[in-house]
Amino acid sequence: MASDNAEAAAGSGEGRSIRLRAADGCEIGATFYPALRPRPRRRVAIIHCGGGIPAQRYLRFARFLAEFGIPVLTYDYRGIGMSRPPELRGFTASTEDWMEFDAAAAIGWLRERFPDDEVVGISHSIGVLALGGAPNASQQDRLVLIGPHTGYFGDYRLLYRLPMAFLWHGVMPVLTRAFGYFPARALRLGDDLPAGFALQWAGRLSPEFRPAGTPAGRERMRKLLANCSALARPALMVRISDDAFATAAGAQRVASVLPRLASRQIVFTPAEANMNRLGHFGFFRLRGGPPLWSRLLANLDPPA
Asked: What is the pTM of this model?
């Protein structure tokens, strides 16, 4: 459940910072963007960030949706962005925590305040696991999976496989154990990562998910993956043609984790955004009401 903050659902433009209280008592940071114009239909959205990517990176896209008339909630997983503790060394946060507690708190907060609206769950990258694995994932009525993949290096483009395998599975576990977290900022690789998540990512060597750790931990992950398997919702899968990580193979693996989605797939190219490249993050860096964002909204509903 989330801590109550009624003023967060009011206002006229800029996002309002709020704190959500997860079921295990942990507080996470979030931002609510109220709609800036009359809504064409009763629809709200929640953005599930990619792993280790602060919610601030999705600010432009969230504002675009709010300007279109769709209220938006973004949130940071524990250990990341506004949910980072004063000391990250030794801070316990795992993929399971992000799925079971953090995503669930955000979904619950939005559903509680908009009980009669259609909730659109939007994920980026491996945020698709939080979108689908949360215990209340079915409270999302429609899904948008942008650049989805499961973190398996074998699905990356060939040019990136060996460098990424060396970084994620060689360098990451060594530095994580030495520092008590993965110092990604120092390496200019994005936000620092809590040790639990970093070591899980480093241990992802099999194309299939193989829950590791203690028997209780393995069982917990199996239950969360079962939530993914059971989720049956209309979904739009958005791939970027030059994305080195969320490739066609990666998207296919996502489909095997979420097999009951009624999924349609569209592919955007850099040329359609009048850019030379987009890659894994470029879709969210676009400025000025770009055509790709409008096209995504136009494709949100299946053709009649």
From this structure: 0.93
